[in-house]
Write a structure and sequence with these properties.
169 residues, alpha+beta, D-amino Acid Aminotransferase, Chain A, domain 1, 2 domains, four-stranded antiparallel beta sheet, 5 helices, 22% strand, globular, metal-binding, peptidoglycan synthesis, ATP-binding
Length: 169
C-alpha cells in the first residue's frame, strides 16, 4: 500500500506503478482527514440486539515526535514502541455515543451475528463515517476487540463465555 498525500501527478503515477508491480488490479481510495475510531460489537445469537463497547483508538506514538507515521505492517506487528490503544478514545461523550450508534447500525445493516469490529473515521467536525466492518477481528488479550470490552466492563473470560454460549444455541 502506498499513501499519497500530494496533488503532484508524478507522486500518484509512482504509487500506481508500484501497485501495478504486484497486481494488474489497483484500488484507489479517497483519503478522509479524520481519526480512526474502532468499536467492538457483539450479538452472540442471531436474535440478540447488538451490544457495543466503548470506542477505542490506536494512537501512533511517534506522531508526537513530528514523524509522519502511518499505521503500517511494522507499526502493527513488529515495532512495539510505535503505538498503543486508548479505550475509550479521547473524544467528547456525544461523539463516542454517535460512534457506538453508527457501529450498531452498520452491524445490523449487514445482518451481523457473533462478533465484529466496526472501524469508523471521525472528522474534526464530528462526522462519523464507516470505514469497514471487520468480521474476524484480532482476539488476543492485547487486541483492540477484547480491550474495548474490558474497558466497557466485560472481561476476556466473560466475552469468551458469551460467544461460546451463543454458538451452542
Amino acid at each position: 500500500m502506498t499513501r499519497v498525500d500530494s496533488p503532484d501527478e508524478k507522486v500518484l503515477s509512482a504509487a500506481l506503478a508500484e501497485a501495478s508491480r504486484h497486481d494488474w488490479k489497483v484500488l484507489i481510495e479517497e483519503g478522509i482527514d479524520g481519526r480512526e475510531i474502532e468499536c467492538a460489537v457483539l450479538a452472540a445469537r442471531p436474535t440478540d440486539r447488538p451490544r457495543v463497547s466503548w470506542p477505542g483508538e490506536i494512537v501512533l506514538d511517534r506522531r508526537a515526535e513530528g514523524d509522519e507515521q502511518f499505521y503500517d505492517f511494522d507499526s502493527k506487528y513488529t515495532d512495539s514502541q510505535a503505538s498503543h490503544v486508548e479505550v475509550p478514545a479521547k473524544l467528547p461523550r456525544e461523539v463516542l455515543d454517535r460512534v457506538r450508534d453508527v457501529a450498531a447500525r452498520a452491524f445490523t445493516a449487514v445482518d451481523g451475528t457473533g462478533l465484529s469490529r466496526v472501524d469508523t473515521f471521525v472528522t474534526a467536525d464530528g462526522r462519523v463515517t464507516v470505514n469497514e466492518i471487520n468480521t474476524m477481528p484480532g482476539f488476543t488479550p492485547i487486541s483492540m476487540y477484547p480491550q474495548a470490552w474490558e474497558a466497557t466492563g466485560v472481561s476476556y473470560a466473560e466475552l469468551i463465555g458469551t460467544l461460546i454460549d451463543g454458538a451452542g444455541r
